[in-house]
Amino acid sequence: MIAQNENALSLRIKEEAQRLGFELVGISPVKLPPHEESFAEWLRQGFSGQLEYMKRTEELRRNPHRLVPWAASLVSVGMNYYTPFSRPAASQQPKGWISRYAWGDDYHHLIKDRLESLLDSIRRICNGPVEGKAFVDSGPVLEREFAGIAGIGWIGKNTHLISPQNGSWFFLGELFLSIPLAYDRPIRDRCGKCELCLKACPTGAFVGPYVLDARRCISYLTIELKGFIPRHLRPLVGSHIFGCDICQEICPYNVKARPTMEKAYAPRAGLYAPDLIPLLSLDEKEFRHRFRGSPILRAKRKGLLRNVAVALGNAKSHEALPALIRALDDEETLVRGHVAWALGQIGSPKAISALGKRLRIESDPTVRMEIEDAITAAENTHSTKTDSTASNLQ
Fold first, then answer.
1. pLDDT tens, 153-190?
2. Taking the alpha carbons of 40, 42, 44, 48 in that order, is the dihedral positive or negative?
3. How far apart are CA 360 and CA 251, in angstroms?
4. Catalytic positions, please?
């Protein structure tokens, strides 16, 4: 009789979750994640980079009983955010790429509110006290591990959770509950011999299948990294200014991805393939106004403008020279340093002159080094172009 009640309650919970907009729903017992030792080894290898919060919360992530000792069950949910816009064709006006998940409103609050609504519904259904705790991404939970246990997908070689019917364009959330429920079964890994995602990564961030070195990942470099992007990786970042998407775009399971029905995730104006040059001129107030309620605020102004400078350097955009030269006087050392690198990539006499002028007044040693190296790179580029022109005239 108890099992029958648990089955009925679990079915009601899934129906309510789907009504709230969660396309994927699975239920699992609260237990140690199957790959918690692999997570610990990943941390030991240093693959988490500067994600210090991962190290601080290691024990909570590896053992949910320390996080929610009262919990018996875990409801894992997935909400589709896919919008079927492809990368823009090359154009004279340089454009940047923002990951699809950041085109609309910040998902954290939306999903957390929906999970709280789900908890309220469960309490009404049970007609009694039910303890619950919701987490969305920022909590110390190995969410993909639990989603896999709950059968809503498997962790693919690109480390994303993949649903066989729906692909991987999903936000994940978790609702821990104090009540026992009927549990779903995990599904098998269906990546097979496919390694398209591993081969497509521009920075070679995958150490191997299922193992990501965050220190080389474009999403990490453009969002989580707070300092200077390693110089040898900057050319590989391309036009990405917030996140990436490449390893998901190449995945065969995403070929038939359905567009999201959630209006909050629809692209805001200027967030799909935005023009890069105007972004470089944003001050702090304009940045906060433009990206209010957006995940892009996570990068902060100095992080976003750092990324924009790198993208413009990779585009070698002469149209961007006036904006880049103005940005050499930015108050943030992080911005000035990457702007200097971008000017070095363009390598025109005008860029060399601007770098020389800034070097005479620059006081920050790191930025000075960036400028000096940029001048060398620019002079080499200009010399090569001059030699090539002279050769063609002969």
1. 999 999 999 999 999 999 999 999 999 999 999 999 99
2. negative
3. 50
4. 137
